[in-house]
Amino acid sequence: QDNSFEQFIINYCNEKLQQIFIELTLKEEQEEYIREGIEWTHIEYFNNAIICDLIENNQTGILAMLDEECLRPGTVTDETFLEKLNQVCATHQHFESRMSKCSRFLNDTSLPHSCFRIQHYAGKVMYQVEGFVDKNNDLLYRDLSQAMWKANHSLIKALFPEGNPAKINLKRPPTAGSQFKASVATLMKNLQTKNPNYIRCIKPNDKKAAHIFTEALVCHQIRYLGLLENVRVRRAGYAFRQPYEPCLERYKMLCKQTWPHWRGPARAGVEVLFSELGVPEEEFSFGRSKIFIRNPRTLFKLEDLRKQRLEDLATLIAKIYRGWKCRTHFLLMKKCQIVIASWYRRYA
Predict the structure, then answer these.
(1) How far, CA to CA in Å, does 276 sit from each of 198, 272, 273, 308?
(2) What's the rounded Cα separation, in Å, for the pair 324 and 333?
(3) Contact 200/227 with Cβ under 8 angstroms?
(4) For the CA atoms of 265, 271, 274, 279, what is the dihedral angle to 10 degrees?
(5) Which residues form the Myosin motor domain (predicted)?
């Protein structure tokens, strides 16, 4: 019920993960259709980049202002930090505070004077400002690091490498918020170089009990995990897409004209293949470099046909091998019989 600095940075990380989910699924999905020249009606979705900017902007972000409060001289308290937020973020559509210049929250009794509220992607969260400055300014003084580094115990010495006199840095140590922000940036950079797969987990109830399904809770999670937008994009679009070359290589045995070798462009081969198989035209589209299949049933049908064809080819190979083996054995026996007969006639 009482959210402080720890929950704030956790929710910030969740926002960044949601942002990359949007980038890699909703945005990239629709941009690919445009790049490939597929006829497409754009589907609107909420991009939470504006919330991430509210938190991490280098000039006006909440973390930047928190660091500024921790570093500036004079009396610094959680109240002065909240005052700064109220001045800079007053007009932001996702920031709410009772003491801000925005009059629409002056009479909001659900929002205490010592709190601020952020309208996250997953809903509104209220943060108790008390402790923000101290928790962000959680510094280990140099003399303590140096004392621990001088300990005789090797483990303690290894835990405080910054205490080594040869590595003393006179700069002020980074705040907890800036360290977390840098870690999140590294994580996002790493994820963007990968091809992630998402598993969205839905909690059926808050009691962690079996056979209880709370419909309101499930609907809330579906709405705020971005699943509705994802389903709309997927249903309006294509369930499967693949470059022409690997598609032709995988399914070419299903058509006599493309098997065993197709002499021509891969796209033309795929067109001949789909025409020969009688796939309805509304079930697929040809992009500039990929084939797009709308319904999973079409793909499953292709896989079933391929599986059956592979079994037929395996039977054909086995048949030819058994014929070759029997013929070879027969010819060997015939040769042996001729040799035996010739020697017998010579003897007779």
Answers:
(1) 36, 6, 5, 17
(2) 14
(3) yes
(4) 160
(5) 1-307
Q: For 50-90, write each residue's pLDDT tens digit.
A: 999 999 888 888 998 888 888 777 777 888 888 888 888 87
Residue 23 per-residue DSSP state: I
In total, the chain counts a number of residues equal to 348
CB 125 within 8 A of CB 3: yes
pTM score of the predicted model? 0.65
Closest among 228, 178, 210 to 66, alpha carbons compared: 178
With CA atoms as reference, report the closest residue to 120 among 70, 63, 183, 54. 54
Q: What is the mean pLDDT of the chain?
A: 84
Residue-wise pLDDT tens digits, 34-45: 888 887 777 777
Look up residue 153 and give its amino acid. Answer: H
Residue 6, C-beta contacts closer than 8 angstroms, at least 6 positions apart: 135
Strands 95-97 and 123-128 come out as unpaired
Contact 54, 94 (CB under 8 A): yes
Instruction: Write out the DSSP string of 202-264.
Output: --S-SS--TT---HHHHHHHHHHTTHHHHHHHHHHS-SEEEEHHHHHHHHGGG-TTTSS---S
| pLDDT (average), residues 104-126 | 80
The token pair that represents 74 in the structure block: 């004079």
